[in-house]
Amino acid sequence: MKQDFLVALEDFLDLAMPTVSIPTYIKLLYTLVVSGCPLLSPVQFKRSSSSLLSQGTLKVLVIFAGIDPGSGSYAVAFTDELGRVVAYREFPTSLVEKDAFRIVGEIARRKPALVALPSGHGLPLLRTRELGEKEVFLLSLAEPGRGPLREFLYASRVLQGITLPSVKELESVPEERKRNVIDMGTADKVASAFFYRTMFESFVLVEAGTKFVSLILVLKGKVVDGIGGTSFPGSAGDLDGEIAYLLSRFSRLTKLALYSGGNYGRALEVAEMISHYYSEKYGVPVIISGRRKWEVNFGLKLDFRFKEASVGASLIASAVSGWAHRELVDMLKSSGTALDYVEVEGWEEVLSWIRTRFGT
């Protein structure tokens, strides 16, 4: 029995930490054993302990955190092991670039078991310790230098965190839809979809952000299509090919130049057309989320006092840790990077630069 206990404890710590602390684990395990339960596997243990928590037998608070990296503000949501929002804060994006360590410190003070990091163009569930210079580049797709996302990711190495996939990396999205596109919906859009997945099985999600508009289609609990903010017609970042050519030829084509354009009204018109098509075809509701959702004159809009993506990210951290909404974690099966499936002339030179700069 002693050997079995040590093996079970070691297995649980390997698979579940940092979901709970060692003293909390011992307390929960003791309660389960004296109540007549057999020695449990890590997954069985978390299910049984969660049941005890919900019955009020134990009072253990496990906190998770999620961050929505908006163009105007970074929203940080904290949820508990039952999926309830227990705290919420927003920080100006300009402050993130100047003092990311201060914001990370405020998150760390709440001692979250796991943090879903702002993940830009996404990488499939990498731990903080696995984030090197190459991974930060793949998340930001920007040359090395300063920037809010880059600064936050470097500062967040003191946290127990994971990256989130973007729509492009989700295995539920057919490969033919991934060809010659990078932005099918950034990781925060996946977090928004996860948030609404806790309420709906199938839906069209239109995100009306401060500058960007995007759309995601969820069918039977899986994301199957998406159009990201930098490829959505009219959204900031969607740039006519001829304009892009002339800028690259006679000026300098930068992300600042890309994001300075857009036609928000036009983006909403296109969003209405596409969402109506999917809604009629699959018989699913259209849900509107994002900072500017009340400017949208179609779709279902629910009133929350938080940004849906931040809470969705926190719930993802909970789910992958085996707590609230763990039954939805298959929605996040993912692989590869946002750079896969690009087949345009000259792309090999881009990949060659990445290999030279960061290694294979």
Relative strand content: 5-15%
Rounded mean pLDDT is 86
Query: What is the distance, rounded to the nearest whole angstrom, between the alpha carbons of the first and last residues?
Result: 47 Å
Rg for CA atoms = 21 Å
The percentage helix is 25-40%
Largest sheet: 5 strands, mixed
The H/E string reads HHHEEEHHEHHEHEEEHHHEHH
| Uncertain residue segments | 1-46
SS-based structural class? Answer: alpha/beta
According to DSSP, the number of beta strands is 9
Inertia-based shape: globular
Largest sheet strand order: 3-2-1-4-5
Q: How many domain units? A: 2
Q: How many alpha or pi helices?
A: 13
Would you write up a description of this structure?
The chain is of the alpha/beta class. It has two domains: 2-55, no CATH class; 64-332, no CATH class. The chain is built from 13 helices and nine strands. The strands form two sheets. A five-stranded mixed beta sheet has the order 3-2-1-4-5. Strands 8-7-6-9 form a four-stranded mixed beta sheet, sandwiched between helices. A hairpin with a 5-residue loop joins strand 2 and strand 3 (85-92).
Topology diagram in text:
Elements: H1 2-16, H2 22-34, H3 42-55, E1 64-69, E2 73-79, E3 85-92, H4 93-98, H5 100-108, E4 114-116, H6 133-140, H7 148-155, E5 161-162, H8 187-197, E6 203-208, E7 213-219, E8 222-227, H9 241-250, H10 255-259, H11 264-282, E9 286-289, H12 308-320, H13 347-358
Parallel strand pairs: 1-4, 4-5, 6-9
Antiparallel strand pairs: 1-2, 2-3, 6-7, 7-8
Helix pairs in contact: 5-7, 8-12
